[in-house]
Amino acid sequence: MAAMHNNSDPPTPLNAAQLEWRDGQPWASAFDDSYYRRDGRSETDYVFLQQNRLEQRWSEWHSGGDCFVIAETGFGSGLNFLLAAQLFLARAPSSARLQFVSTELHPMRAADLRRATAFWQAGAGEHWLAEQLLANYPPLVAGQHTLQLADGRIQLQLLFGDALTALQQLCVPQGVDAWFLDGFAPVKNAAMWQPALYPQMAALSAPGATFATFTAAGDVRRGLTTAGFEVSKIAGFANKRDMLKGTLCDPSSTDQPTELPWFLGYASNATAPPRSAVIVGAGIAGCSAANALAQRGYQVTVIDRHRQPAQAGSGNRQAVVYPKLSLRDDQLPQINLASLLFASRYYRPHWQAGRGQQCGVMVLPQGSDDSLEMAAIAARHTSADWIEWLDSEQLQSHSGLALGSENALWFNQLGWLQPQAVCSALLDHANIEWLNADIEQCQFDAANQQWQLYSAGKPVADAAQMVIAAGVDSARFGQSAELPFKPIRGQVSHLHSDQLGALPRCVICAQGYIAPAYERLLTLGASYRRDRLDSELSCEEHQHNIAQLGDSDRGLQQLLGAIEPHGLSGRANCRATTPDYLPLVGPVPDSAAMLERYAFLGRDAKQVRPLQGAYQPNLFMLAGLGSRGFSYAPLMSELLASQMCGEPAPLPRALCNALHPARFIIRDLKRNRLERYAALRSVGQLV
Fold first, then answer.
1. Which residue in 567, 562, 534, 560 sits closest to 545, CA to CA?
2. What tens digit of pLDDT does each residue of 329-353 get?
3. Where does residue 62 fall: left (phi above 0), alpha (psi -120 to 50 degrees), or beta otherwise?
4. Total-model pTM
5. Cβ pair 469, 289 in contact under 8 A
């Protein structure tokens, strides 16, 4: 039910809330207004919880693992969210999940948020939820941030930026169930309470969605009524005379799509319990996807041709959560940034459990232009407090090495991981079953609405939904053969700690990377080769790994200059990449049907028709993560699970579409590049 708007404008710079503290309460200087009354808990209960009938709706709800979606304008101090979440945990079925989406143009800094929540906390439930919120509160970076709370039962989507712009890009397949219209008063915050907000609310709402707001302003009432809400004026809280509440009855929007809705139309068995899924592949993509689905109540079978997880592309001794940022505001840098921010929170319990080290990652510039861009990146994120620009004196104290660079970017929330330990931990869930088999074929049984998987000609597993997460083997099935994977060989080199005069305390990235010692071995990486796809170690590539780091920094050159590549241990395997270097995340298209349905694009690439896409039934993919598998996988698995379950997506719609497996078919149709499909069809690979 997402609205059909396209917004490719660069994001507005994010400014933190400017606060005054009056009698211990936060006051917004820019809006000359308070965030909440002294009895703010009672006001939230009356205005938002009671008028949306949340206690009644959740107490009477017979959930089969579904989610309830609340959308809010104006996160503020988090008071509304925390009280709604506490009520949800107390009243909703234990199998249900709450998805709370909240916009905020001027988010509080973490220290201010802690002080603000401390003012009104009263119950133990509020305290532990508030502590989880504070522990996971994201850096002040514009965009969409996903926070997992209460063991996954509560998911908070914080949309930092303009409310209308964020809501226009919000993906909510099943629609919003209840709206909290908050934020400062319309007379003081007209930019938020603009006429376009109300039809956007209606476009995102589920049938019968409710709303409540503290204001009774005439413009707000008329805007909601025109958008299709039945609006009632009732007594306000305490000494406030009036407020508004209501229900969506008949959305009035008649907007025609402004872009071709090729990304819609895939089927999902999300609401048909018992939920089951089979995942082919047990690298970081498959394991993180399995865990995301298991937390949503799925019974998941993970199948891999190896006897243990993380044995192919994810199988190195050490995996670096690698930061690759840019000043550009196009889709690849946006996805990289969102993935890094999510991964830094996702891996925290793994680092705490000793499955790697959150030692920090240092990125050295390569030349003066690179140094200027990195300095600008650090300046852009100054208020976010997650990137630091180091000078030459700080490099040695952070890295433990006498580096020759004059400056570097420092990411204190990142580090390296033990892939096998992390993947095994992700699979250690009561809802996940492991199966060792080499899957050669899959077929959809339409009569039973099940995917059947075969190994050596025999059926080995079935499930309502299927996920292909098999790295470079993801295109081996007829249903996915048209997807353009590019295998690229990569080799890492292992150095013994005795071979070095000094040891790095953190991950150092330049041209290649070096990770701190793990069990007395350090990992250097990695080569990129398209001319060979085997897994035999190459002395030439060991030399390459050493040389590229040495060429990056004279201090690294002195450290590694005496290393002899002959006889080094290491590991080689193939990464699965795509032509645009973005992963494939989402439903697998029915290529033949898509090519036929959208053939008109070959004549007019700009033509828009209200035609949804054609997709394989309940077949999904998470692959093509390239060399950033451990950076991408956590957020990509959440995106995949949200699509399979019909939940709000953790990324704006434009970025979801940039990751969509069907994107290449649409691009090829528009460019009349269809030779590859004809070739595949001629050998019977398309089904």
1. 560
2. 889 999 999 999 999 999 999 999 9
3. beta
4. 0.94
5. yes
